[in-house]
Structure formats: C-alpha cells, structure tokens
Amino acid sequence: MIATLRKQKGFTLLELLIVIVIIGILIALVLPNLISGPARARDSKRKADLRDIRNGLEQYYNDNSSYTADLNSLTLGATPYNKTIAKDPKTGNDYVYAPTAAGGSGAFTTYTLTATLENKNDKDIKTGSTDSYELVSAQ
C-alpha cells in the first residue's frame, strides 16, 4: 500500500474542488469591498471638501457678520478664505450652497451645503434622504 501511495502524483478531484470552493468564498468576501472602494474614497473627499468650504464660510461670517451670497466670494481678496472652491470629484459639478437671509435684513444668517454621496449606506447621509450629505451653518 505504501508503494502505491508514493506512485500517485497530483491532486485528487475532491482536493481540487475544495480548493476552488475556498477560493470562491474568499473572492465573494473581498470583491464587494474592492468594487466599492473608489466610491467610498470619493465620498470621503466630498465630506472633506464640504468641511473645508464650511471653515471658509465661518471665517467669512466672523469677519462680516453675514455669510456670503455665493462661494466664489471666499476666493477673492488679498487674503482669501479658501484658495479654490472644490468641486465634486466624479462629476466636476459645484456643491450646492444655499444661504438663507433672516427677516428683511438681507444678511445671510444660515446656510446649507449639500453633496450627493455614492455609497447609499453611508452613516452620514441625511435622515429622510437616500444620498444627501449636508452641513449646516454653525450660527
């Protein structure tokens, strides 16, 4: 019997099937994370962009007692609040900035910044929405 075992070379069909099943399970576990990785990275960039814009808006508010009517004002002047206004990393579109004036003063006292996320399961998606991430004014 020992002599016959030594003459066998290669793997049995059962051994090959077990290895193929194990590889299939590993691929099934890893592949979804690899596919969604770029979308999650772009979502992280969107969130960081909105935080950067929010920082510029809050500095502008501290200096002017009002938020700006449009984001391009943050890049103007001798000492701009933001060097550039970031755009969506996938589409290149501007983020949605909606300032709100209180009463009849004309001064913008609140705002909402909104970006559309690709990962519908992101924990930061606005309640009641399927893909919106919002930052609101600190004032």
Written overview of the protein:
- It is built from 2 helices and 3 strands, in the order H-H-E-E-E.
- The chain has a single domain, classed as Glycoprotein, Type 4 Pilin, CATH 3.30.700.
- It is elongated, with a radius of gyration of 27 Å.
- Strands 1-2-3 form a 3-stranded antiparallel beta sheet, with helices on one face.
- 12% of the residues are buried.
- The chain is 42% helix and 14% strand.
- It has 139 residues and is of the alpha+beta class.
- The model has no long low-confidence stretch (mean pLDDT 88).
- A hairpin with a 6-residue loop joins strand 1 and strand 2.
Write the topology of this structure.
Layout: H1 2-7, H2 13-64, E1 96-101, E2 108-116, E3 132-136
Antiparallel strand pairs: 1-2, 2-3
How many separate domains? Answer: 1
Q: Order of strands across the biggest sheet?
A: 1-2-3
Order of SSEs: HHEEE
- Any idea what the CATH architecture is? 2-Layer Sandwich
CATH topology: Glycoprotein, Type 4 Pilin
User: Quick one: how many beta strands?
Assistant: 3
Largest sheet: 3 strands, antiparallel
CATH class value: Alpha Beta
Per DSSP, what share of the residues sits in E-state strands of 2 or more residues?
Answer: 5-15%
Level of helix content?
A: 40-55%
The rough form would be described as elongated
Protein structure class = alpha+beta
Mean pLDDT: 88
Low-confidence region ranges: none
What radius of gyration results from the CA coordinates? Answer: 27 Å
Distance between the termini: 85 Å
Give the count of helical stretches.
Answer: 2
